[in-house]
Amino acid sequence: MLEDPSPRLLELLVARPVHSSPDKGLVRKPMNLPISLTLLRIFFVPIVVVLLLTKGGNWDLWAVGVFLLAAVTDLLDGYLARKRGQITTLGILLDPIADKLLISAALISLAELRLVPAWMVVIIVGREFAVSGLRSIASTEGYLMEATELGKTKMVFQVVAITVIILEGHRFRALHPLGKILLWMVVLFAVASAVQYFWNFWKHLDQRLKRRASRRKVALVDNEVELQANESEDKEPEERDVAAQ
């Protein structure tokens, strides 16, 4: 028969590891509500695709409902993370991935239904992959690229545009001009925000290279000063010997 575990052992087994940030006072946990909402948004992706590609009935309305619900989780996870002080590195990296999966899956499905031009989908999805790759490179360099205002505006236009296009596909044909305008706005903001991300990364990289170059110059100057000091110390005994002779 096993002995009853001590209270200290139970505490170690049950308690979750919590790390606090002394600088910002943020509580960091391996899993919290904002991250759970982000994972829920990823779970919604295949459901949206199935609902969009299923013909007949009210599946398009269900697709709009699930898509908007997933978009709401995008607003909630950021709000709750800031309010609760649960901003984590995992959340910063996972949140844009969930957004890109949701938007890309919806646009590709709409292109399959011939509701969206394929070349626009290529630009928007290509931009998402390019920015994701840039974020990965930046993270390896110790630089976390947070979402910009242009990126957030682009996300809002994407949600509204996709919703309008789904609704005008088989039900509200009068929304077609509005959907087309919104889609063009998405393309413009996608390109503009991508340029901004790359420009911010280039500025960070340029500043980092300049700091390295300045440190190397300081190190070289220090080495030269040290060499001159050593040479002067070596010459002093020689001068003394010559003077003594």
Plain-language structure description:
The radius of gyration is 29 Å and the shape is elongated. The protein has a two-stranded antiparallel ribbon. By secondary structure, the chain is an all-alpha fold. The model is unreliable at 1-28 (pLDDT under 50). The longest helix has 69 residues, at 176-244. Strand 1 and strand 2 form a beta hairpin. Helix 2 (33-53) runs antiparallel to helix 3 (59-84) and helix 4 packs parallel to helix 6 (149-170). The chain has helices at residues 7-14, 33-53, 59-84, 89-112, 118-140, 149-170, 176-244; strands spanning 19-20, 27-28. The protein has one domain: Up-down Bundle (Four Helix Bundle (Hemerythrin (Met), subunit A)), CATH 1.20.120.1760.
